[in-house]
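Appendix C: a fully annotated inverse folding record. The material below is reproduced so that readers can follow the format used throughout the book. The structure is listed first as tokens, followed by the designed sequence.
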């Protein structure tokens, strides 16, 4: 990866005051923001070129292209056989989706990940649109994206319900990670822009910035440790601000980003009780709904626990340990991680949007965020661990 390749986020239209406010992260004038058109480009820039671009009044943010990777599952294993007595995975039951009359009908969901096995029987009733940003072509050679998609909108597999919102009408699958789970911020941003332009209402991302990977790339270019670390920190900071800006535009409900909510995994770097790691970008960006992972209650009357690996400071939490979902090639597989919790939250968001559309057609993004976060519950989470669960486990509309 060239270390002088930059992402440039530009805004045109609107008046100069609005553009200036947008550049500073001030997006209070929603009506004016709706007139702004946002575009991205990438370019290899010298220091002088970069300074010129940053001086352009239409440029909101610039950031070096950084590596990203999927938030790797902490464990994989054989799935339970599809004879769950409740007819649904424990995660579907825990978020209340099994008892909800909503299915996600009329909602468009986007999954930015490693692709999807569109031939899997779990997706037979979903209209799937694929876009490859990796050069590998459509499909999923990793399995992570297929598993996440199955948890959001997958249909029953051998009698077991795996999807929180199996009635989702349309799925946008942005393949931004290759078969090794690797990508970069250029692909992520392009995938995000594509998803919102295609009408996504809910966007699910189980992806994290790869800071160590970028340091290694710089060291491989014969750079010394100190300047390599400094350069990586600068790029890390600029990319966080870039995602802040994009998320703020989503929240501002502009005409381009109408009614889209972004749900992202908080990360798996913690190791409780030894230490905790804060939510990792891009989930840490302002305006993203970061997701922590919960594990099943052990025994009658027990409460959900926060997974030992789940990073601290999430906005909400979802089931993320021993999650059975779709496997590339057919059948089911079991994974654990905040990557698995995130699609539970995305699915619940789809259920809430269906309900909101019925009650108040044309409602804005803030109402959806309010329902998703406001209805989350800490009641079934063990008291000592509630501080690490955000607002609590998301709950489907009843």
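Designed amino acids, in order:
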């Amino acid at each position: 990866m060239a270390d002088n390749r930059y992402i440039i986020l530009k805004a045109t239209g609107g008046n100069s005051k609005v553009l200036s406010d947008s550049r500073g992260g001030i997006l209070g004038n929603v009506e004016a923001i709706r007139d702004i058109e946002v575009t991205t480009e990438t370019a290899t820039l010298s220091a002088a070129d970069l300074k010129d671009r940053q001086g352009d009044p239409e440029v909101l943010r610039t950031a070096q292209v950084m590596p990203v990777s999927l938030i790797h599952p902490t464990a994989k294993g054989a799935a339970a056989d599809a004879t769950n007595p409740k007819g649904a995975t424990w995660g579907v039951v825990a978020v209340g989706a099994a008892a909800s009359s909503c299915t996600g009908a009329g909602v468009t969901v986007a999954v930015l990940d490693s692709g999807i096995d569109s031939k899997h029987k779990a997706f037979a009733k979903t209209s799937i649109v694929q876009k490859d940003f990796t050069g590998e072509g459509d499909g999923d050679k990793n399995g992570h994206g297929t598993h996440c998609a199955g948890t959001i909108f997958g249909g029953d597999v051998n009698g077991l319900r795996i999807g929180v919102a199996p009635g989702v009408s349309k799925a946008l699958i942005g393949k931004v990670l290759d078969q090794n789970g690797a990508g970069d911020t250029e692909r992520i941003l392009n995938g995000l822009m594509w998803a919102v332009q295609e009408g996504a209402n809910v966007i699910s991302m189980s992806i994290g910035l790869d800071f160590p990977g970028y340091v290694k790339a710089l060291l491989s270019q014969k750079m010394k440790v100190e300047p390599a670390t400094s350069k990586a920190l600068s790029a890390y900071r600029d990319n966080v601000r870039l995602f802040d800006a994009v998320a703020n535009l989503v929240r501002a409900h502009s005409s381009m980003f109408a009614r889209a909510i972004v749900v992202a995994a908080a990360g798996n770097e913690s190791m409780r009780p030894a230490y905790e790691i804060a939510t990792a970008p891009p989930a840490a960006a302002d305006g993203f709904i970061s997701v922590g992972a919960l594990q099943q209650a052990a025994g009658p009357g027990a409460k959900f626990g926060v997974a030992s690996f789940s990073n601290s400071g999430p906005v909400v939490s979802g089931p993320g340990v021993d999650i059975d979902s779709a496997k590339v090639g057919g059948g089911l597989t079991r994974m654990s991680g905040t990557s698995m919790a995130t699609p539970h939250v995305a699915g619940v968001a789809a259920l809430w949007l269906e309900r909101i559309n019925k009650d108040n057609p044309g409602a804005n993004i803030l109402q959806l965020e309010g329902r998703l976060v406001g209805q989350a519950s800490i009641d079934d989470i063990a008291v000592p661990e509630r501080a690490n669960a955000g607002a609590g486990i998301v709950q489907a509309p009843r």
